[in-house]
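Dear Dr. H.,

I hope your travels went smoothly. While you were away I took the liberty of generating a structure for the chain from your last submission, since the lab meeting agenda had it listed for discussion. I wanted you to have the full record in hand beforehand rather than looking at slides cold. The sequence, exactly as received, is reproduced here:
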Amino acid sequence: MNIDPRQVCDDLRLGLGEVYLPYALDRKYPNAPKEWKWQYVFPAAKISVDPRSGKRRRHHLSEDSVHRAVKGAIRQAGINKHGSSHTFRHSFATHLLENGYDIRTVQELLGHKDVRTTMIYTHVLNRGGKGVMSPLDSY
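The corresponding predicted structure, in token form, is as follows:
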């Protein structure tokens, strides 16, 4: 599934490392498709031809590949509970709330338009009177 990050640098040297940028950003910022900050975190293993431009380039890893890899890792680890890559999203939100982040920050990070959607995560906390901690409690 993963390729060596050095491969991306090799792709750039070979002229294959440009990434596709939406909304004409590549015309506005001509060097952006080659800049490190725009490169994919999870690049695909194969080089493909971009049907829009005809350029040969490495695209990002497909979502399905990530989902299959997570499912395979859960099976391989012998975990007998349902889990998916989406489980990480739920865990992320729950841990943020457990660690005292405010609901509006979590809402923004998850991209929820309505805070009521984010509040679903608060039911698992169920802290009662221990919901507020003194700064001295962390020592």
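Two observations you may find useful: The chain has a mean pLDDT of 84. The beta strands are 43-49, 56-60.

With kind regards,
E. W.
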